[in-house]
Amino acid sequence: MKAVEEGLARKFWIKFESDFVFCMYTPFFVSLAAGTLNTDTFLHCISQDSLFLNAFARAYKLAEECADDEDDKTAIRNLRKRVNKKLKVHDTLVHEWGFELPKENITDNAAVKYTDFLGATALGKVEGEKALKIETPFEKIKIAAYILGAISPCMRLFAVIAKEIKALLDPNDSSHNYKKWIDTYCSQDFEVSALLTEELLDKLGVSLTGEELEVIEKLYHQAMKLDAAFFAAQPIDQQIVVPLSQVQDPVEGRLTIFCDFDLTCAAFDSSAILAEIAILTAKKADPDQNETKLTRMSSADLRSAWDVLSTKYTEEYEQCIKSIIPSEAGKFDYGSLCEALKQLADFEKTANSRIVHSGVLKGLNLEDIKRTGEHLILQDGCRGFFKKTVGSENFKTDVHVLSYCWCGDIIRSAFSSGDLNALRVHSNELVYEDSISTGEIDKKLESPLEKLQVFNDILKYRNNDDQHLTVYIGGSLGDLLCLLEADIGIVMGSSSSLRSVGDQFGVSFVPLFSGLVEKQRELAKGGSFKWNKLSGTLYTVSSWAEIHAFFLGS
């Protein structure tokens, strides 16, 4: 048998966290967090609780019968008692929340899909797997573990979403329509139930094989997806701010997405990747080659030269940032920010000239660059988002990649698979002779101001109306001006220089979910809302799943 590391439930939660994101960004939870969710929608949702709770109770009963350890049996029995207690007081609890359940309960198809899935799991029927006969004690233990794997994510999902929403509320404001519901799922009692379920899953998983753990992982993920699908399917009869693709007019609307590449799309910095290509392929060079303008340094010399260049760049970059940050933070001042970033432009151009002069980019084969680009690791969810966005038939979308990268070919190659050739790349380019780089760079984008110029040139002929939105996604200081000029600026990652400069010039960084909740409130109050460029507010995300959920939903 294969022992599992401690925290099986936690490992699964982290792995499938994107499904939690898709769930949280549904119109249901954004509106609930804003306190503006239509009451009928809320009542329809919670009227399904009895369906879920009864399914939990039946599954726990089977899990208790299957467990062979008395402590495990007792723990599962206590979980079942908690569920039965909640079933008995559910109507009273709803009344305490300030609502009355409808007399006629309409069963939700999305809820039935989950309860059918849980029921099948409890009987040993796992999609794509051979059904268990549940005859031997060990087979019964597996069933108990499978049941806990299918219930655990549901408990954790409610606990985490409720805590995320509660963090946005004013603790002194009792007027929020759904505050008592949120408090219930933030309670210590509910957290104990969630933890007990996870601890049992961890304990039961210890005796399972690697193949059986894969089955539990599959069940955990399926449960997460079914939960997200349930909340996405809730009937919404009100104006909403998410997903963006449904808010905009599908006929008149057009979306232009701009995106940085390094550390926004790509998981690594392209300059370091190009340097590594040069170092690794230098070994192929003929040591007896004749001296020409394409003669390359040895691998060792290239490594040494690159280390010196990168160290010098980092030190001077930090000095440059210190020199442009004002001593005291003030109100948002776009003009002063533009002036300050001119110093960064001078620094970047000097650094690029140093790269050319060093010769570290001389002698690279174009095919090596393209091959590397094709295998480049992109941020999780990035490729899938663009594939769905570009391929959407419901919304007109243009995508432009704006990058300081020295070589546009590596970006184009990274997006060459998955039908993403429609993405337009704007970057610097290496100069080649017979597909071999000369070491020169055709410099087109070296500073925040030049990025902004390309951004404005692309938008020069767009219709300036509410149905044509611009979005910029970036994570570096070089993106700051474009982020502010776009209707919606989304900051990926946690660049310290971007944050420190932005903070000092009065830029506000707001988590995207929090920003959407506030927009939903605006919509409820005034009947409309707008995304405004140069507002001084940027929205932060930690993953492409958040961007996907915001734009496209689940």
TrEMBL record:
CDD domains: TenA_C_AtTH2-like
Pfam families according to UniProt: TENA_THI-4
BP GO annotations: thiamine metabolic process
InterPro entries, per the entry: HAD-like_sf (IPR036412), HAD_sf (IPR023214), Haem_Oase-like_multi-hlx (IPR016084), Thiaminase-2/PQQC (IPR004305), Thiamine_Salvage_TenA (IPR050967)
Entries under SUPFAM superfamilies matching the protein: HAD-like, Heme oxygenase-like
Record-annotated Thiaminase-2/PQQC domain positions: 27-122
A GO-annotated cellular component: cytosol
PANTHER family given in the database record: AMINOPYRIMIDINE AMINOHYDROLASE, MITOCHONDRIAL ISOFORM X1-RELATED (PTHR43198:SF9), BIFUNCTIONAL TH2 PROTEIN (PTHR43198)
Name under which the protein is recorded: Thiaminase-2/PQQC domain-containing protein
Species this chain originates from: Dipteronia sinensis
